[in-house]
Design a protein that fits this description.
The chain has 237 residues and is an alpha/beta fold. 38% of the residues lie in helices and 27% in strands. The chain binds adenosine-5'-triphosphate and magnesium ion.
């Protein structure tokens, strides 16, 4: 088997005096879609932020394509090929849709690859339609699409997605599932942090469960889906 794209080993991280992650370990192979599942406050967002260099890593290792990401600033992590779609989207509401798509390519520099403005617009026709519109005028679902499109513009090899389906209706979620299948078909691996097992199982083949800052379970998605006991223990409220 080829070397993993991302390897997280024994990760610990937190905020000031508070430790949130104690021992998180996970692997994403090239082109794979993996979910990180867990209840509220278990450390999903913190895990993605620590990989991205947005939260201080305290112990353990994050290795991406053989590079240790330890203490690298976020723009450098992006340059190495990690895209991030945060749960709050971080759209610039006063800029146009198109400027939101072009902006990160200015600060991170464009990596060569499949994705460019035309391809992002054909993946999300609604963004093409509203390209000259203020991004703040888009609906929540459209802003999620914009945040994904913006991450694709950097041609990442790994896309980190935080609660991608949160707050979206079933039609938009179905669209998002299709979009992510296309993203994967273009060769991009996905790490999905989500509480929504129904959504995650339509996207990912494999999953880790995170609980109180540790990752006690690693299994194929189908096994997790079939294990009611596991779901009750770690996932349902
Ligand atoms: N900026 C911060 N400062 C202090 N504590 C924080 C901060 N962000 C998160 N936390 C705490 O860290 C813990 C884990 O939060 P995190 O956001 O990583 O969880 P999560 O699994 O993503 O939860 P959710 O499902 O609600 O998104 C929580 O107890 C939270 O209160
Ligand atoms: Mg979160």
């Amino acid at each position: 088997m080829s070397a993993p794209l991302l390897e997280v080993r024994g990760l610990s991280a937190g905020y000031g005096p508070i430790t949130v992650l104690f021992d998180v370990s996970l692997t994403v192979n090239p082109g794979e879609a993996v979910a990180l599942l867990g209840r509220n406050g278990t450390g999903k967002t913190t895990t993605l932020r620590t990989i991205m260099g947005l939260t201080d890593l305290r112990a353990g290792e994050v290795v991406f394509k053989g590079h240790r990401l330890h203490r690298r600033p976020p723009f450098e992590v992006a340059r190495l090929g990690v895209g991030f779609v945060p749960d709050d989207r971080r759209i610039f509401g006063e800029l146009t849709v198109e400027d939101n798509l072009l902006l990160p390519t200015r600060w991170a520099g464009r990596r060569n690859g499949f994705w460019n403005l035309d391809r992002v617009y054909s993946l999300f026709p609604v963004l093409a339609q509203f390209r000259k519109l203020r991004a703040g005028a888009l609906s929540g679902g459209q802003q999620k699409m914009l945040a994904i499109g913006r991450a694709l513009m950097l041609n990442p090899e790994l896309l980190l997605l935080d609660e991608a389906a949160e707050g979206l209706g079933p039609i938009i979620v179905a669209e998002l599932v299709k979009v992510l299948a296309e993203v994967r078909a273009s060769g991009i691996a996905i790490l999905l942090a989500d509480q929504n097992l129904h959504f995650a199982r339509r996207v990912a083949d494999r999953a880790y469960i995170i609980d109180r800052g540790t990752t006690p379970v690693s299994a194929p998605m189908a096994e997790i889906w079939a294990n009611e006991e596991l779901i009750r223990q770690y996932l349902t409220v």
